[in-house]
Amino acid sequence: MMQEKGKLIVISGPSGAGKSTVVFKAIEGREDVCFSTSVTTRKPRPGEVDGREYFFVDPDRFKEMVENDELLEHAEYVANSYGTPRAYVEEKLDAGLNVLLDIEVQGARQVHEKMPDAVKVFIIPPSLEELEKRLKGRGTDTERAIEARLIRARQEYQEADFYDYLIINDDADKAAKELSAIILAEHCRFNDRKEYLK
Ligand code: ADP
Ligand code: 5GP
């Protein structure tokens, strides 16, 4: 078999939908898939570790990264900045690895402009009531932050038709299987394999 190119997989969906849960279940034990850790100006939540969930930076450093073109995309989300370090993504894709990004809709649109082959997956909970329950159950956000995230969720739902795939995260194991299936199917695309016909 020829060395296949890595796929860039953009995952979006409302905060609390279970994106991190599903992504980490899907990549567990796999060496062909990696997760791009974003940079954010948001303060770490209890239990979050710098360099694992995010690289936590101050607004000046974030601005500097934007100015130096170090970010593949970046956006504001509920009063904080978030961005994807470009170098990591490019290096892993070049090495043939699939790279997962967990980013919101504005960032997904920027990635789509720059890398139209990126696969776009939207993950939602079974209902908005369940979303509120998960945000409260996670216990990491204030009541006000949860309200802001619920408002943002409704806005993001309006843009969901921009995505290629929709996963309903009712059961996290099933959702992770669906994400793995999407990655697998994307590697079977005719255009990527037509060289074999020669
Ligand atoms: P996101 O990354 O989308 O913000 P998280 O992965 O942090 O969401 O999940 C939000 C909360 O919902 C967490 O407490 C997580 O354990 C829980 N959760 C995730 N998936 C499910 C599921 N399928 N059923 C019930 N709870 C879930
Ligand atoms: P949270 O603060 O809950 O970790 O993330 C809030 C939102 O920011 C989520 O929708 C998440 O997908 C998004 N996000 C995380 N990292 C990035 C990033 O690098 N770029 C963009 N555009 N959004 C991000």
Identify the notable features of this structure and list them briefly.
single chain, 198 residues, alpha/beta, Rossmann fold, 5-stranded parallel sheet, 4-stranded mixed sheet, 8 helices, 9 strands, binds adenosine-5'-diphosphate, binds guanosine-5'-monophosphate
List the helices and strands and how they pair.
Blueprint: E1 8-12, H1 19-27, E2 33-35, E3 38-40, E4 54-56, H2 59-67, E5 71-77, E6 80-85, H3 86-94, E7 98-102, H4 105-114, E8 119-124, H5 128-138, H6 143-157, E9 165-168, H7 172-186, H8 190-193
Parallel strand pairs: 1-7, 1-8, 2-7, 3-4, 8-9
Antiparallel strand pairs: 3-6, 5-6
Helix pairs in contact: 1-7, 5-6
Bound molecules: adenosine-5'-diphosphate and guanosine-5'-monophosphate.
Give your account of this protein's structure:
41% of the residues lie in helices and 21% in strands. With 198 residues, the protein is of the alpha/beta class. The protein has a single domain, classed as P-loop containing nucleotide triphosphate hydrolases (Rossmann fold). The strands form two sheets. Strands 2-7-1-8-9 form a five-stranded parallel β-sheet, sandwiched between helices. A four-stranded mixed β-sheet has the order 4-3-6-5. Strand 5 and strand 6 form a beta hairpin. Helix 1 (19-27) packs across helix 7 (172-186) and helix 5 (128-138) runs antiparallel to helix 6 (143-157). The longest helix has 15 residues, at 143-157. The two termini are 14 Å apart. Bound molecules: adenosine-5'-diphosphate (ADP) and guanosine-5'-monophosphate. Residues 15, 38, 42, 73, 75, 77, 82-84, 102-104, 106-107 line the site of guanosine-5'-monophosphate (5GP). Residues 15, 38, 42, 73, 75, 77, 82-84, 102-104, 106-107 line the site of guanosine-5'-monophosphate.
